[in-house]
Design brief:
The complex is a heterodimer of chains A (402) and B (171). Chain A has helices spanning 12-25, 33-67, 83-93, 104-120, 139-148, 150-160, 164-195, 200-206, 223-239, 264-288, 305-326, 332-359, 366-391, and strands at 210-211, 215-216. Chain A is mainly alpha-helical and 402 residues long. In chain A, strands 1-2 form a two-stranded antiparallel ribbon. The longest helix of chain B is centred in the middle third of the chain and has 26 residues, at 49-74. Classes of the chains: A mainly alpha (402), B mainly alpha (171). The interface between A and B is medium-sized, with 25 and 24 residues.
């Protein structure tokens, strides 16, 4: 593993965010600087991801529109660029309706808790070189702990509404979230096993450098890393309630699930939390598998690290939107079957593959070929066999017309 | 530093007492989750990051879900009172179990060396936790796993009781 070539001499743009923060805090007395540092971190995360959320909704509506052969929002501002702000004003000025029988405290707390927990997950993601708001030793665990607390908020929303449809939907959402949390967690365990670190910065540092000067040492370029990345992204789709797993609030057929009794800005908060969760999970996928903020080629290191992180994040988010435009929604039984019978066994096999990969690290020469062959076989054969076993008897359906 | 500990301990204990005293079972579950979060806060205060986040992930993410599902699947309606008649006959068992747990905890606390300054946390704690769990504490790990399985099966059994003549709707 080559050490990072530009470790000492860093570009001005590379250090710009930290320099700017230090310049702002230099006006303050020394004892309050740590507080100001944290506040600036929080404010910049909220500003950046708030704007990203706003324009992500616009991009999604535009892309879905183009896919469905219509222009999408194009009346507010140039090319519809002001649409998210118009939506925001609309949501803020709408009446907030609370059902009379609802549990007022929990009904109010649910969207707040959901949003708070999804924002908390941003704290440990390394957005660039030296750009991590909170460098925790067990940062990855913190990320998933904060993410798992959102389930409680969804339950609160469904139960406090005092509406049977909302409660059913909350139970359905919980069943989905619990099912997919398992493959999500199992797909990051191999990364911890291979890099020996639970800290996101440590995992990013382990992916520095290039093999043969051209192929980055990103974990997605190992057999088990590619499989883990695929499992992680499928589970992330389900965890963030995105199509094709958007049963919890399938607007068109299940009356918006646990959001049924919410209106106005509380309703918007749920969607904000959903998009934040999607961004955070994509950011964690970039950190765990796609080399974090590292550039793909040594030459490209002149582009600052945070720009690379943003580029990778946007590619993943575009993938989310593309999948939503392409795939139809799953049925509830198909959804849970996919998690328990397909993704969980594959994630467990992947853990074994990673153990093999780590143990055979010293192999060289022709043994290296054997190592790749066995690992690729372990990654490629089980999904095919498992998929065939699960879909046997379901075969292509023949339609007969009268 | 001690002020932080007192705040955490108060929050944990107050939410736990409120959870026990409350009439609404669902509120009790949510308050219990707050209490577990307080325990996680205590672990963070003590510098055990891994244990703290594992506590949140497992208790708030998973066990509270098991409790919520058990409560929702076993109760007929939202306003159904807690089964008072059955709980009275179980009182002696509750007292015995509570006393046993309290005795074990007190024995552990009494054995603890009263050192005013905690030793610095050893490096690579996660690796050490893993090695210890797979080595010396493997039987305990297995027992805990069996216990959780029993809890899960118990939830299924409680939820799948056939009520003769019961109607389908629960609201």
């Amino acid at each position: 593993m080559n050490p990072c070539p530009s470790g000492t001499q860093q570009h001005f743009l590379e250090r710009a965010p930290v320099l700017l923060r230090d310049w702002i805090t230099s006006f303050l007395p020394g004892s309050t600087r740590w507080l100001a540092d944290s506040l600036i971190d929080i404010a910049s995360i909220l500003a950046v991801f708030g704007l990203l959320f706003a324009f992500l909704t616009l991009a999604e509506r535009k892309v879905l529109g183009r896919v469905q052969n219509r222009p999408g929002p194009n009346r507010t501002g140039w090319m519809g660029l002001l649409q998210p702000f118009a939506d925001g004003i609309k949501m803020l000025t709408k009446e907030d309706v609370v059902p009379r029988a609802a549990d007022p405290v929990l009904h109010f707390l649910a969207p707040v808790a959901l949003l708070a927990f999804s924002i908390l997950t941003f704290a440990v993601i390394p957005f660039g070189r030296n750009l991590v708001p909170l460098d925790l030793d067990a940062g990855v665990l913190y990320f998933f702990a904060a993410g798992s607390a959102t389930e409680l908020a969804i339950f609160m929303a469904g139960w406090a509404s005092h509406n049977k449809y909302a409660l059913f939907a909350a139970m359905r959402a919980l069943a989905q979230l619990i099912s997919y949390e398992l493959p999500l967690l199992l797909s990051f365990v191999p990364v911890v096993l291979a890099t020996g670190s639970l800290s996101p910065t440590g995992i990013v540092a382990a992916q520095a450098g290039w093999r043969w000067g051209a192929v980055p040492n990103w974990l997605v370029f190992t057999p088990w890393g590619a499989a883990g990345f695929a499992i992680f992204m499928i589970s992330a789709l389900a965890e963030s309630n995105r199509s094709p797993f958007d049963l919890p609030e399938a607007e068109s057929e299940l009356i918006a699930g646990h959001l049924t009794e919410y209106s106005g800005f509380k309703y918007a908060l749920f969607f904000m939390a959903e998009y934040f969760g999607m961004c955070a999970l994509s950011g964690m996928a970039v950190t765990l598998f796609l080399g974090g903020w590292h550039a793909p080629l040594p030459v490209l290191e002149i582009i600052p690290s945070y720009a690379w992180f943003a580029a990778k994040l946007l590619v993943l988010l575009a993938g989310f939107i593309w999948i939503r435009a392409t795939l139809p929604r799953l049925r509830m039984d198909q959804l849970t079957k996919l998690a328990w019978k397909f993704l969980v066994p594959l994630a467990l096999i992947n853990l074994g593959t990673t153990a093999f990969w780590t143990l055979t690290h010293p192999w060289e020469g022709p043994l290296q070929l054997l190592r790749w062959g066995v690992a690729l076989g372990l990654v490629l054969i089980p999904p095919v066999l498992l998929g065939r076993g699960l879909s046997s008897g379901l075969g292509p359906r023949r339609y007969r017309y009268a | 530093m001690n002020a932080v500990l007192i705040i955490i301990a108060t929050a944990t204990l107050v939410t736990a007492v409120m959870a026990m005293a409350g009439k609404n079972l669902l509120h009790s579950v949510l308050l219990l989750a707050c209490s577990w979060a307080g325990v996680a806060g205590f672990f963070l205060w003590a510098g055990a990051q891994f244990v703290a986040f594992a506590q949140i992930l497992i208790y708030i993410g998973a066990i509270s879900m098991v409790v919520l599902f058990a409560v929702l699947l076993t109760r007929r309606s939202r306003d159904e009172a807690m089964p008072a008649t059955a709980s009275r006959s179980r009182k002696p068992y509750a007292v015995i179990v509570g006393a046993a747990v309290a005795a074990v905890l007190l024995a552990v606390v009494a054995d603890w060396p009263a050192s005013p300054s905690a030793p610095p946390p050893p490096p690579e704690t996660v690796r050490r936790i893993g090695v210890e769990l797979m080595g010396a504490y493997a039987p305990a790990l297995l027992v805990v796993g069996a216990l959780l399985t029993v809890a899960l099966v118990g939830a299924v059994v409680l939820a799948s009781v056939d009520r003769p003549g019961g109607s389908e709707d629960t609201q």
